[in-house]
C-alpha cells in the first residue's frame, strides 16, 4: 500500500471515504492481509490522524501521527526519496514500530491515542505470526478503544480465532459487530466475515448470512456471490 502523504491526511474527501474503503479491502482481503484489519489499519488510522490533529491534545496526536508514518513506511535497502520515511530492513522497521507505538501506550495510558496504538500493535503482531501477543493487544483495544476501533479489533481478533479453529469465539465477536456496526466495520462487512468463517461448520447459516448480501451492490455483493458459490462447491 502506498505511503499516505500529509495532504491526503487532511483531505475531507479522504476521511469521508474511509468507511467505503472497508468494503474494498474486504473484497481484496486474500491479497492484502493475513488477518482481518491488518492492512486496513494503515489506511483507516491515517484517516484518524485528520481528526486527532484537530483536537487539543497536540502532543499525543503528534506522537500517533509519527507512529503511523513508521507503521506505513516502506523497506528500501537503497536511499529513499527525499521526505519519504523508510527503513533499510524489515527488522529495523519492526523495532521502530514497537518503540513508537509502545511509547504511546506507556506515556498516554487511558487515552484514545493509546487505545489506537494498542490496536495497531495487535494487528502488527498478528501480521507477523505472533498470535498470542496479538490476542492480548486486541482484547485490550476492544476494552479501551472507542466503538469504531473496538469494532476493528473485534473483527481482527475474530479472524485470528478462526485461523486457530476457535469458531465459536470468532462467531461471538462478529455477531457483536453485526449487532452494533460502525463506520469502520459495517453490518454487511461483518456478516460477510462471519459467513466465510461458518462456511464449513455451518454452511446453512453461512448461506442465510450471504443471501441478502448477494442482492446488494458493490464489492460486498460480489464477495458474497463468490463466497456463496464456494459453499456450494464444498458439498
- What's the helix-strand series? HHHHHHHHHHHHHH
Q: What is the residue-mean pLDDT, rounded to a whole number?
A: 79
Number of helices: 14
Distance between the termini: 37 Å
CATH fold descriptor: Serine Threonine Protein Phosphatase 5, Tetratricopeptide repeat
Number of strands: 0
Parts with pLDDT < 50 across at least 5 consecutive residues: 1-39
**Helix share bin:** over 70%
Largest sheet, strands/sense/barrel? none
CATH architecture descriptor name: Alpha Horseshoe
Strand content: under 5%
Q: Given this structure, which CATH class is correct?
A: Mainly Alpha
Structural class: mainly alpha
Alpha carbon gyration radius = 18 Å
How many structural domains? 1
Molecular shape: globular
Summarize the structure in words.
It is a single chain. The protein has a single domain (6-185), classed as Serine Threonine Protein Phosphatase 5, Tetratricopeptide repeat (Alpha Horseshoe). The protein is mainly alpha-helical. Helix 8 runs parallel beside helix 10 (147-163), helix 9 packs antiparallel against helix 10 (147-163) and helix 12 runs parallel beside helix 14. The chain has helices at 6-9, 12-16, 18-27, 29-32, 38-52, 58-71, 90-107, 112-127, 131-144, 147-163, 167-179, 187-198, 203-214, 219-233. Helix content is 72%, strand content 0%.
